Amino acid sequence: MSLVTLTNLTIHHGGNPVLTGVNFNIQAGEIVTVVGPNGSGKSTLLRAIIGALQPSSGQVARASGLRVGYVPQKLHIDPTLPLTVRRFLSLPLRVTNAAATQALEQAGAGRLANQQMAGLSGGQFQRVLLARALLCDPQLLILDEATQGLDQPGSAAFYQQIETVRQHLGCAVLMVSHELHVVMAASDRVICLNGHVCCEGEPEQVASAPEYRALFGSGTQGALALYRHEHNHSHDQDCTHEHHDHEAAQ
Amino acid sequence: MTLLDSFLIRAALAGLGVAIAAAPLGCFVVWRRMAYFGDATAHASILGVALALSFQTSIFTGVLVVSLLMATTVSTLSNRGYAMDTLLGVLAHSALAFGLVAVSFLQGVRIDLMAYLFGDILAVGRLDLAVIWGGALLVLALLWWRWSALLTATLNPDLAYAAGIDPRREQLVLTIALALVVAVAIKVVGVLLIAAMLIIPAATSRPFASTPERMALIAAAIGGLSALGGLQLAFALDTPTGPTIVCLAAVMFALSSLTSLFFRGNRI
């Protein structure tokens, strides 16, 4: 069952195309990671899926009654707004204390309920955001660079938590990330985005695709080499768009 | 002979009505950093007074219409890439200036401009009282009804979208509530001081609140206290009532800031 289907999606921002002709779907229970350089339209894609952006053309079809848990890239809470973790979890729908406690436990943020949101550390904050996203019993969990600002052990632990959650709830996960190797290991499917879908497939396929290397080759050095020598098989990607100079990564 | 025959009782009830509606709304104004927005809407309402007098409709209707127009204009323009503070600076003061000029054109009507700029709470009649409480209860009902959605949209528009809430609609709810508060408050504190009734109680209650709801409740209490206390003070000291109410609120804000500074100093 497709939870979300994007058909030929094009989105303009301030007159410039951010996404062009994107086709995408995510099935129940699937983990999909979107990778791409800065400004490649990753966040735009997610915001179109949650309905925060209207497409210039193309369609966004959500399964009827789809429950989405959304963890934003960052959340600025104005210092004039007093907000405990417990109160935050009850937005927008009130939840019982038992449900709140359970969600905090699941997200690895137990015992934070009475703290002020403003007083949390970066890692605690992300876990509370995750806990809130879990409370609607999501069919689809969307994470937008959720580990931004966490150190490497912190983000590794966070992704582990997400995997545990996924096993427990069986929800689909759609995430955007920069941390390629951590993310790729957990994903069923990886989509390489740069204004359009450059290539997609299983993590091994994408990691060794020339389009992917062209995008990440220069920036990731050692991390990329890991994929290059391990996966040397052929694959058939349907890449109909123009790409960057693939030779750059060779 | 009923209780409402006393002008002081009517004034007290009017002040209380405005205060308890303005304070929770003021919390949103503070959280969303819309202080100037409230100011602009309030200042534009003097133009509403002029229009109402020239078309011989009720002041409430004129002010409500112009406030709504002003608030929608600001919301629309702010999404078009103007710098918000510049835009509001232009609109707030030009609306006030146009309003004052428009009032001067009115022939045959002698109006006491001061009463609209600074309020005339002691002249509140039974009908005014009914309008004030009707408006106040409407604002409170709106906020009560949309509370959770408003709070989510205030926190982060994307979180709202993901939960199926349209933040633009919530913004519209706030805009309407703001116009209503301005329309009912003009008689009590006047156009120049309405923003104070919105913002000062909310800012005063911040250090003592741990949740948004508590902040709104404490703000309403502080607003009500300033209205009643200000009225008494004005009576005792023979000072203008609207400004006295705002002065009392400001003193409470100063005390609240000092208290929180002191406690924070102790904790560290």
Automatic annotation (TrEMBL), chain A:
GO terms for molecular function: ATP binding. Residues 4-219 form the ABC transporter domain. InterPro entries: AAA+_ATPase (IPR003593), ABC_transporter-like_ATP-bd (IPR003439), ABC_transporter-like_CS (IPR017871), Metal_Ion_Import_ABC (IPR050153), P-loop_NTPase (IPR027417). Keywords: ATP-binding, Cell membrane, Ion transport, Membrane, Nucleotide-binding, Translocase, Transport, Zinc, Zinc transport. It holds the Pfam family ABC_tran. Coiled coil: none annotated. Residues 231-250 are annotated as: Disordered. PANTHER family: METAL TRANSPORT SYSTEM ATP-BINDING PROTEIN TM_0124-RELATED (PTHR42734), ZINC IMPORT ATP-BINDING PROTEIN ZNUC (PTHR42734:SF9). This is Metal ABC transporter ATP-binding protein. It comes from Parasedimentitalea maritima.
UniProtKB/TrEMBL annotation, chain B:
This is High-affinity zinc uptake system membrane protein ZnuB. It is found in: Cell membrane. It is a multi-pass membrane protein. One of its GO terms (biological process) is zinc ion transport. It comes from Parasedimentitalea maritima. Keywords: Cell membrane, Ion transport, Membrane, Transmembrane, Transmembrane helix, Transport, Zinc, Zinc transport. One of its GO terms (cellular component) is ATP-binding cassette (ABC) transporter complex. It comes from the Bacteria. Belongs to the ABC-3 integral membrane protein family. It holds the Pfam family ABC-3. Involved in the high-affinity zinc uptake transport system. Its main location: membrane. The keyword DNA repair does not apply. The chain crosses the membrane at residues 12-31, 43-70, 82-106, 127-147, 176-203, 215-237, 243-263. PANTHER family: ABC-TRANSPORTER METAL-BINDING PROTEIN, HIGH-AFFINITY ZINC UPTAKE SYSTEM MEMBRANE PROTEIN ZNUB.
